[in-house]
Amino acid sequence: MHYTGTVYRNPYEPPSPLLEITQGCSHNKCKFCNMYSAVKFKPSPIEWIEEDLAEIASMYPNTHRLQLLSADPFVLSFEQLDEICDLVHNYLSDIEIMTMAARVDNIKDKTVEELEILKSKGIVELNLGAESGDDWTLKRVNKGYESKDILKQCSKLDEAGIDYWLTFLNGLAGKEHSKDHAINSAKIFSQCNPTVVGTGGLVLFEGTGLLAQYRQGKFNPLSEKGLMEELKLFIENLDFDGRFITHHTFSMNLNNSNFKENKQRILDSLQHGIDNLDMDRLTQIRNNKRSL
Ligand code: SF4
């Protein structure tokens, strides 16, 4: 198999073979991310993709599911993705579901009709790393799009019937802008129709712009308790009918439940954590993280 640089398997998806169709990240400029900083973005050679498909077919001939890599393979044009979908079906006749991570702006050059075709060929779900719905925050971390783009591109996915996850990066705006990040993200996400909202807590990884700003005294990160309070504010303002997951450093019973039915229980668990958890221990766990 051909894998280049970081290989990220979405831990919340059912296990499935991983097929790399792009290398690195087409953007690679977010100030909190170092995942693909050492990899130059490019589409994988079609010969590599064919060799990998042949290998997957020899090991898992009946697989019905694939995860496509790398950071944002949906950046490929409709024509490129269409060709890859056809190749996948040539080698793996039982494939029904192809999922992948995507940036919001990966969708913008594809029409609803093209999205419908890709869906009919198995691209049924995208994992959108939105991170925030607050324009100040999106700009500050150089995300490369605005909240209105999230609304516009998600509505195209809705029209085409492609499911999507939206992620919220807890702590991304630091202390001073925490409330706006939480409330405005919840407002934007609530106007979309994600099947999953996922949240993770910010870690200042080595080599990132945010860590450099922190060292210069220009970024004021939230404490562990502040992160949980921001997450609570986000959840209080969030309204959607789907699954909620979080890979915060604390482990409480918040995951994998229908959000609408469990919102109050999730908020109560979070408040219990805010009141009772050992924040020093949580800080230590977060500081030991080396990647997302
Ligand atoms: S967060 Fe996503 S889009 Fe931003 S640089 Fe990292 S991989 Fe690329």
Could you characterize the architecture of this molecule?
- It comes from Methanobrevibacter millerae.
- Its cofactor is [4Fe-4S] cluster.
- Residues 11-241 form the Radical SAM core domain.
- Keywords: Iron, Iron-sulfur, Metal-binding, S-adenosyl-L-methionine.
- It holds the Pfam family Radical_SAM.
- 40% of the residues lie in helices and 16% in strands.
- With 292 residues, it is of the alpha/beta class.
- Helix 6 (178-190) packs parallel to helix 8 (224-236).
- It has helices at 46-59, 78-91, 112-120, 135-140, 147-160, 178-190, 209-215, 224-236, 259-276, 279-287; strands at 18-20, 22-23, 42-43, 65-69, 97-102, 123-131, 163-170, 196-201, 243-246, 257-258.
- It has one domain (18-287): Alpha-Beta Horseshoe (pyruvate-formate lyase- activating enzyme).
- It is built from ten helices and ten strands.
- The protein is globular and about 55 Å long.
- The strands form two sheets. Strands 1-4-5-6-7-8-9-10 form an eight-stranded mixed sheet. A two-stranded antiparallel ribbon has the order 2-3.
- The mean pLDDT is 93.
- Bound molecules: iron/sulfur cluster (SF4).
- Iron/sulfur cluster binds next to loops.
Q: Could you name the CATH class? A: Alpha Beta
Total count of strands = 10
What is the total number of structural domains? 1
* Sheet with the most strands: spatial strand order: 1-4-5-6-7-8-9-10
- SSE string, helix = H, strand = E? EEEHEHEHEHHEHEHHEEHH
User: Which cofactor or ligand species appear?
Assistant: iron/sulfur cluster
Which CATH-level-2 architecture? Alpha-Beta Horseshoe
Spans where pLDDT lies below 50 across 5 or more residues = none
Reported for the largest beta sheet, the result is:
8 strands, mixed
Assign the structural class, choosing from mainly alpha, mainly beta, alpha/beta, alpha+beta, or little secondary structure: alpha/beta
Keywords: Iron, Iron-sulfur, Metal-binding, S-adenosyl-L-methionine
Protein name: Radical SAM domain-containing protein
Pfam family, one: Radical_SAM
GO molecular function: catalytic activity; iron-sulfur cluster binding; metal ion binding
